[in-house]
Design brief:
The protein is α/β, with parallel strands linked by helices and 125 residues long. The protein has one domain: Gyrase A, domain 2, CATH 3.30.1360. A four-stranded mixed beta sheet has the order 1-2-8-7. The protein is globular.
Length: 125
């Protein structure tokens, strides 16, 4: 699972095995270690109707409505996107959780677990 943070925007990208695991268990977690501390980031299914997120005790958690997980897992649906109102400010947090597609550029990173990029298919039509 990859995480990208930019301004008030948070994006998770999951490979095929990670989407499968999340679909089965309703939870997936990763961590990055620093000197003396770690940052955890997780995805959790919820009965809520909208995407939401929390940050507590060095853990970022994004909550996805359980009602949409099976469709996401078994169809070409790319992911979930939403805005979360921030109670302690006048702003919002943009949330995006999506399948991780193979890169269009040649990269030296193993992408065998990524989803086929739909733009590659279009370029052959």
């Amino acid at each position: 699972m990859k995480i990208r943070i930019k301004g008030n925007s948070l994006r998770y990208r999951l490979t095929r095995p990670e989407v499968e695991q999340f679909g089965q268990t309703g939870y997936i977690e990763e961590k990055i270690d620093f000197v003396g501390n770690s940052l955890y980031y997780s995805l959790c299914s919820t009965d809520q109707e909208k995407l939401s997120a929390s940050f507590y005790d060095n853990q970022i958690t994004v909550y996805i409505p359980a009602s949409g997980i099976e469709e996401w897992k078994t169809t070409e649906q790319t992911g979930f996107e939403g805005e979360m109102e921030l109670e302690d400010s006048e702003g919002t947090l943009h949330l995006l959780v999506e399948k991780d597609f193979t890169c269009l550029d040649k990269v030296a990173v193993d992408q065998s677990d990524n989803y086929p990029n739909p733009l590659l298919k279009e370029s052959y039509d």
